[in-house]
Design a protein that fits this description.
four-stranded mixed β-sheet, two-stranded antiparallel sheet
Length: 236
């Protein structure tokens, strides 16, 4: 080619990331923001396909939900002041990853099973649309204080993520994907996951908790540089 040299291309490593979480889990929203920051830092050498897997913090939560302060004081045996202090700590951490927590708007804790059913369907349709729906659900609940069990909200968010709203409505009006979602939940709890977020990379490396972006970045680089058959676990 007339003496021109071809630029050296850096080999890419493609990772699969299963992000086990609940849409009502504040540290899951923080963890996703930090993971996305880390993925931006390691791109384009390291690419990842995210799959969001279901986990319910409150599977027995009734349809009408529960006051959030009441719920947290009862569940964790802490005072209202401690609840508010913990919330402020999460709000500050969330701000570092560009996520806006509105503590005053999030008045209630809701059942999230229908949201997980819709996310399961979204994964089957397009993992990028599933990711968009997941992020919209976090924003709806934690920023806007909306009810993630409300069918009309779920249908609207599905449409905004590029999914078929007619199909979304059909799913929510039925028990479609209920068995599959519960099977996924049992799969991860059976594997020993009892708190979230749990980030599983290439089905063998586990990172637990809403870690800072630096922790995710280091783990991603270590895993991407590992020989394919190595079995070490990334430590967070």
């Amino acid at each position: 080619m007339g003496g021109m040299s071809t630029p050296h291309s850096t080999p890419q490593r493609q990772l699969r990331i299963d992000f086990v979480s609940d849409v009502s889990c504040p540290w899951c929203a923080v963890g996703l923001g930090a993971l996305e920051q880390a993925l931006a830092r390691v791109a384009p050498e390291i690419q990842a396909e995210l799959h969001f897997q279901p986990f319910e913090l409150n599977p027995q939560m009734p349809r009408e939900g529960q006051d959030s302060i009441e719920h947290l004081t009862e569940k964790y045996g802490i005072s209202e002041e401690q609840v508010r202090a913990n919330g402020e700590n999460i709000r500050q951490r969330a701000a570092t990853v560009g996520f806006d927590f509105s503590l005053d708007r999030r008045k209630r804790v809701w059942n999230t099973f229908d949201a997980h059913r819709l996310l399961h369907w979204a994964e089957l349709e397009d993992v990028n649309k599933q990711r968009a729906l997941k992020k919209s659900l976090f924003k709806a609940y934690f920023t806007d204080g909306l009810n993630p069990s409300d069918a009309d909200l779920l249908i609207r968010l599905a449409g905004e993520a590029g999914l078929d709203t007619v199909r979304a409505r059909e799913i929510l009006a039925s028990d479609l994907y209920a068995a599959e979602t519960r099977e996924r939940e049992r799969l991860y709890t059976g594997a020993g996951i009892h708190s979230v977020p749990a980030i599983i990379i290439d089905n063998k490396h586990l990172i637990s908790g809403g870690q800072p972006a630096e922790i995710f970045e280091r783990a991603l680089r270590q895993i991407a540089g590992a020989a394919p058959r190595q079995q070490e676990t990334a430590q967070a």
